[in-house]
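help with this record:
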Amino acid sequence: MSSRPHEGETESTDSEVLPQNQLPGADERATVQRVVVFRLGTQRYGIPLAHVDEIQQIVAFSDVPADSTSVVGMVNLRGEVIPAIDVRRLVGMEDRAYTLETPMIIAHSDAHTVALIVDVAEDVVELPDSGFQSASPLHALSSKMIGVYHLDGGLVYLLDLDELLEQVLLGEEAENV
């Protein structure tokens, strides 16, 4: 008896039906429908929309001791004090001066809410059924990525927010990756 995939599902090579955007052997976290795409320099990154609370322009933040190179301060977000993380520093890129136009992506992991400082917040993107590839183990951030999507505008590195924040908590900044 042959079973055909339902709408929004794909058929694997072993004839088992997989949910949309989940590839055979892929981690469960690879089942992502929409992402918030942002840029650091010319490179595009994405975070699953399910982790994003809002996007806003940068606000004043209080300084923190220099124990962490990526946590640049603390932000008071409607009474909740959350860390402001410079994603450029987190992935090992050179600093860039903040302006009034610098966006912050307010996002949450399983255990933390953070303000992610990025260069440009682009848009929410619906991911296609195809175009996903696991991150190459040779990429410095491979353990912090869900994978890579080939989209019309080029590659988008889909980041695993829980793994990125674990890196900050353990003090393993990108220079030690």
In short: Confidence is low (pLDDT under 50) at residues 1-30, 172-177. Residues 27-176 form a domain with the OB fold (Dihydrolipoamide Acetyltransferase, E2P) fold (CATH 2.40.50.180). The CA atoms of residues 30 and 54 lie 22 Å apart.
